[in-house]
């Protein structure tokens, strides 16, 4: 393989003329490469270090003032603090500045366009680092009446972005928090840092020098004067315009109620008392018919909702595969049943079955309970006796236990289930053929909705039949002129406002279960809870 570079060709020609120096040249080239690489790396490191130092020192050198200029500026601000023990220059004694300045106001501030009102995190860090090496400008020992200090700080901010205040040592009742709050209210600056020794303030992005402030205030006053002159010119011009409209002496009555009443009294045919009564009857019948139509519409809507609830219930019920009752149930004597019933009713730990009914968590808790006891006590609240009986049969079939008794107590219906003499704990104590906790809650909600809708449909049907019968009687008594007709119409409209309040979910509030929250907590008992109750 041959290279066409000129340097390579020159090297090959030299190696052919001086073959004895090949090995030495190799060593020299290797040493040369090593030396060049080390020197280059050192140079790069030195260059990066110097560049980083310059990049950090340049902005600091721009902000730091010359010592002589700083002394001259501090002399203009006020008397020095002669007891200063720190580095030069000596700060201004803020306690010797006037506490109150006549006519002092907070400096006028205006944020430039496309500028943030607050400092960014990088800017805040930069100014805090700058404040560490800047000597303090003021020495303060009092907490309030700092208008003289505020005036001096505003003057300092014309040439410096930050103002550093040293807190005098040995002065009693000094609170840097109160000092910082007072200075911020007087100057409007931004607090950068505050500790037991120093307080640092930034002048703010909206700070304006006195010359710019004066110019802006003058322009604002000039704009207000021009606006006042324009308003005066408009008022003078409007006074010169002569109004040519003719003002009528008589009051205007066209289109008013008085004109309508006067016209009706002169030209309209006033209905008689019989005609008025007939109109009232016709109006009442029309309202009655509209009410019947409205109730019929509500009835059809409720029937559609029932179908929707049944479809939703069917989606949940497809996950429920209940077990049939076992044919080979264990038998016990009457004495044993009586003894188990007495023991079960006197037990303190119990399970609670609420609106969810029997689901996989209920059977799981029964098996956890049977780990330490032969009996389990289950309390059912808010259910009728047929429903409780069905729950007891389901518990007996799903758990594999033996139903001892079903009693009614002050706390609700109590179900006692015996685990059996040959009880063996199954591998999976949570059955897969029952609904989960969430599915059981959804099933309970759909059942409640369907029951409420059926009750609502029944009440609407009864109401419609009653109104139709009343409407037929009214049609029969229409020509007789009986006064009983009008009283029946008044009674018929007593339910109209109630119908308007029945929305889609209003019927659910009637069937709300008050024991819902308590039932959910009781279904989650574990075997540790049973041990503690014993």
From TrEMBL:
<feature type="domain" description="CRM">
    <location>
        <begin position="117"/>
        <end position="214"/>
    </location>
</feature>
<keyword id="KW-0687">Ribonucleoprotein</keyword>
<feature type="compositionally biased region" description="Acidic residues">
    <location>
        <begin position="511"/>
        <end position="522"/>
    </location>
</feature>
<dbReference type="InterPro" id="IPR001890">
    <property type="entry name" value="RNA-binding_CRM"/>
</dbReference>
<dbReference type="GO" id="GO:0006397">
    <property type="term" value="P:mRNA processing"/>
</dbReference>
<feature type="region of interest" description="Disordered">
    <location>
        <begin position="511"/>
        <end position="534"/>
    </location>
</feature>
<dbReference type="GO" id="GO:0009507">
    <property type="term" value="C:chloroplast"/>
</dbReference>
<dbReference type="Pfam" id="PF01985">
    <property type="entry name" value="CRS1_YhbY"/>
</dbReference>
<keyword id="KW-0934">Plastid</keyword>
<keyword id="KW-0150">Chloroplast</keyword>
<protein>
    <recommendedName>
        <fullName>CRM domain-containing protein</fullName>
    </recommendedName>
</protein>
<dbReference type="GO" id="GO:0000373">
    <property type="term" value="P:Group II intron splicing"/>
</dbReference>
<keyword id="KW-0508">mRNA splicing</keyword>
<dbReference type="GO" id="GO:0003729">
    <property type="term" value="F:mRNA binding"/>
</dbReference>
<keyword id="KW-0677">Repeat</keyword>
<dbReference type="InterPro" id="IPR045278">
    <property type="entry name" value="CRS1/CFM2/CFM3"/>
</dbReference>
<keyword id="KW-0507">mRNA processing</keyword>
<dbReference type="GO" id="GO:1990904">
    <property type="term" value="C:ribonucleoprotein complex"/>
</dbReference>
<dbReference type="InterPro" id="IPR035920">
    <property type="entry name" value="YhbY-like_sf"/>
</dbReference>
<keyword id="KW-0694">RNA-binding</keyword>
<keyword id="KW-0809">Transit peptide</keyword>
<feature type="domain" description="CRM">
    <location>
        <begin position="330"/>
        <end position="430"/>
    </location>
</feature>
